[in-house]
Amino acid sequence: MTTNNFVHPFRYFFVVALLMVLMLLLAWRAVDLQVVNKDFLRGEGDARYLRDVSVPAHRGMIVDRYGEPLAISTPVDSVWVNPQLFQPSHEQQKQLAKKLNIKRKKISKLSSGRNRGREFAYLKRHVSPDVARQVTALGIEGVFLQREYHRYYPKGEVTGHVIGFTNIDDKGQEGLELAYDDWLRGIKGKKRVLKDRLGRVVENVESIKESDPGKVLRLSIDRRIQYLAYRELKAAVRRHGAKSGSLVMLDIQTGEVLAMVNQPSYNPNNRGAFKSNRYRNRAVTDVIEPGSTIKPFIIAAALESNRFKPETVIDTSPGLLRVGSNVVRDHRNYGRIDLTAIIQKSSNVGATKIALKLEPQTIWDVMTRVSFGYSSGSGFPGEASGLLTHFSGWNKIEQATLSIGYGLSVTPLQLARAYSALAGDGYLRPVSFLKLEDGLQAEEVVQVFQPETTRKVRGMLEKVVGKGGTGTKARVAGYRVAGKTGTVKKSGVGGYTDDYIALFAGVAPASNPRISMVVIVDQPTSEEYYGGEVAAPVFSRVASGALRLMNVTPDNIPPIGTRIASLGDAP
User: How far apart are CA 167 and CA 336, in angstroms?
Assistant: First the structure.
């Protein structure tokens, strides 16, 4: 009994002591977690319910020179899933596929075993608000919405080639969207949110970093003139069954691009119909041989050599000229004509005879001064520089063909810029796709011709549009026009083909030029294929509307007495 009485108290006290130690340990653990190391538990809890998520930043808007939107980013939702939570039933898969207009196979693949290790996968990007609401209403675990931005182009085809487009992640891919991507692209922000066990955001806790939206890009384009140019070029390409066409209009006083269109065009809002041969900007990326539109620069070189004057007579008889084994021909024998008539009649023989009397370097200097063979420096992606070989490698036939616009290549933009130098008293200005608020700095403008030379050449170019000239269809009621037609045979494998390019390059109003425009219609298949028949009428209609939209004062209004007499003679 003595032994048993001794053992039982020992066990009792041992058990009590053990329980007290355990209680103390538990108490210490509770104090440790709740007071000493409380951040650990809070962090573990936050890790399950608090998340840092990015805040999308909308891309900067692109507007025309008057602030009208040409590219806008609108908020949309994208549907994504967490494959670890996403285990829809067969019926739910069918409903989800129907709402999102996707194949059920794509849905079942995301919920399969090999994707269970992932936490994020897009189901469909950029859905409409109505579709987003319908998807949410299905209540499928593991399906979420993410706010993104979709790029929209209000003018569609009209500005497609200039503006370009972005990809589904709102990054610039073509045109000015690509050239100014850094300027337009915003910087994402970050915020902390509270999510429930299904991953849905139930509360915004705090903003960590504000999103920084992209900047507005104001272009030099006038949307009204752009639409006018688009409409008229498209009509001409269709009317003449042409392969393609381009039109460029520059503001002579600033170098700003007022309009630039191409055919065929494309709608940047319809990504499903994109074709690579349609969305390149031909006015900047494609080169052509300029044909007779180059002749004014040959005449300018002749005048600045001081060996020729506008009234200098050149004998073009008998309407052809043999240069080595090649023959240069006119449409007919123009006989003895002066420099003005050479431009007015577009005499190949006359231009060739003048070029052969000049030093090759003299011609090459004039061509390079107006930047033929060099990029315009506009900064447009993919801009071509054209081709102009060095004069040291020219022979007689190369010098002759160059004088009538063969053997060199230019872009429509380069040609329009060169004509702006002829119109702007010899000053060559940088090309700008952006609106210039304060004009250009003086050092950015280069004088490439003497003002007197350009005035004489402009006078000759006016004769082209006047009676007896090749460009009478380029006339604009109320305004004097100076310009030059061109009809070029297209080169192909083994030589030149029987296909043509019709051109017209001109400026208006001739007394104080404001616009320089080049119209190109490639491979017209109708009976009319000359530049004066195909391209000149487009110039006339576009220039007529543009000059009025720009409030340019007419410089060719007949005297009142003449108009009254004309009205009196009408039947």
Answer: 61
Using omega within 30 degrees of 0 as the cis cutoff, is the peptide bond preceding 56 cis?
no
Residues tagged active-site: 292
Q: Between residues 46 and 519, which one has the greater pLDDT? A: 519
pLDDT tens, position by position, 486-497: 999 998 887 889
Residue 141 CB contacts under 8 Å (≥ 6 apart), including other chains: 85, 86, 87, 198
Cis peptide before 360 (omega within 30 of 0): no
Joined tokens for residue 324? 């080595």
**Amino acid at residue number 403:** S
How far is Cα 35 from Cα 262, in angstroms, rounded to an integer?
73
Q: Which residues contact 315 (CB under 8 A, 6 or more apart)?
A: 335, 336, 353
CB of 353 within 8 A of CB of 367?
no
| CA 336/CA 334 separation, integer angstroms | 7
The C-alpha atoms of residue 457 and residue 303 are separated, in whole angstroms, by 9
> Under DSSP, is residue 127 helix (H, G, I), strand (E, B) or coil?
strand
Strands (E), 283-334: 313-315, 320-323, 326-329
Select from 248, 226, 304 the least CA-distant residue to 507: 248
Using one digit for the tens of pLDDT, what is the confidence trace for 131-164?
888 888 888 888 888 888 889 999 999 999 999 9
* Sign of the alpha-carbon torsion through 447, 449, 452, 458: negative
- C-alpha dist (Å) from residue 555 to 100, 397, 420, 477: 61, 42, 19, 10
Nearest to 357 by CA among 406, 305, 294, 317: 305
- The string of pLDDT tens digits covering residues 74-131 is 888 888 888 877 878 888 888 888 888 888 888 877 777 666 667 788 888 888 888 8
Strands 515-522, 244-251: pairing is antiparallel
All domains of the chain, ordered by start, with CATH?
63-218 (3.90.1310.10), 223-560 (3.40.710.10)
Cα 338 from Cα 322, distance rounded (Å): 20
Distance (Å, rounded) from C-alpha 286 to C-alpha 291? 15
Q: Supply φ then ψ for residue 567, to 5 degrees.
A: -65, -35
The answer to whether residues 242 and 87 touch, using CB atoms and an 8 Å cutoff, is no
DSSP states along 56-122 = --PPPPEE-TTS-EEEEEEEEEEEEE-TTT----HHHHHHHHHHHT--HHHHHHHTSGGGTT-S-EE
In whole numbers, what is the pLDDT of the chain averaged over residues?
A: 87
Q: How many CA atoms lie within 13 Å of 90's alpha carbon, on the beta-carbon side?
A: 0
Containing 336, the helix (H) or strand (E) segment is strand 336-338
Q: What percentage of residues in the chain have a pLDDT greater than 90?
A: 61
* Cβ-contact 516, 252 below 8 angstroms: yes
pLDDT for 252-309, tens place per residue? 999 999 999 999 999 999 877 777 778 899 999 999 999 999 999 999 999 999 999 9
pTM of the predicted model as reported, rounded to 2 decimal places: 0.84
Cβ atoms of 504 and 483 closer than 8 Å: yes
Q: Which helix or strand (DSSP H or E) is residue 568 part of?
A: helix 560-569
Q: How many CA atoms lie within 13 A of 108 on its CB side?
A: 8
Query: What is the residue whose two structure tokens read 């992606």?
Result: 381
